[in-house]
Amino acid sequence: MKTIDPSPTPRSNLYLVGLMGTGKSTLGKMLAQNLGMSFLDSDQEIEKVAQMNVSQIFSKKGEAHFRSLEKDFISHGHPQENCLVACGGGLCIPQGMMEAIKERGKVVCLWASIATLVERTSSDKTRPLLQNTSPLTALQELLNQREERYKEADIIIETDDLSPAEVVELIISKL
Questions:
Q1: Gyration radius of the chain's alpha carbons
Q2: Residue from 42, 17, 26, 14 nearest 111 by CA
Q3: Which residues of the chain form beta strands (DSSP E)?
Q4: Contact 91/77 with Cβ under 8 angstroms?
Q5: Among positive and negative, which fits the CA dihedral 124, 127, 128, 132?
Q6: Domain ranges in the chain?
Q7: What pLDDT was estimated at residue 9?
Q8: Which of 1, 80, 110, 121 could form a Cys-Cys staple with 18, CB 3.0–4.6 A?
Q9: How far apart are CA 35 and CA 172, in angstroms?
Q10: How far apart are CA 89 and CA 42, in angstroms?
Q11: pLDDT value at position 119?
């Protein structure tokens, strides 16, 4: 007699990447629920380990330290299957990081125009890389630095003119 395993087949992780304001955390929660996956936000997980928020890590320890915490999170700070991770905007940028997350699952890049990103992030004072006199210029510079790397994702989804539910449906259709 054959025994039927009632547990669902484990699925590889899913990683959302993209600039701040593209909707990784918001859409990630919705998408994880739709797919029956656990949801983690890399920044929130790093904040728990560091016992300070991202802005404090940047100001007290520096960006290089924060990037090392991201590397640790990807290496051994989250489940290896059935997990959807909303990655911090710069997580996949350092050498080896995009490759590391691709080894662990599918990578979806959420994309939005600079105008949309400025609109979505303008009132958020918790983003250390935007705490300057021109967030528009800062976002454009970040995009210029990161665009090539983001385009290495397995799937790229433009979010500008779509509702969160439409983006979730589109991602599911592309998986």
A1: 17
A2: 17
A3: 13-17, 38-41, 83-86, 105-111, 155-158
A4: no
A5: negative
A6: 13-174
A7: 62
A8: 110
A9: 8
A10: 10
A11: 77
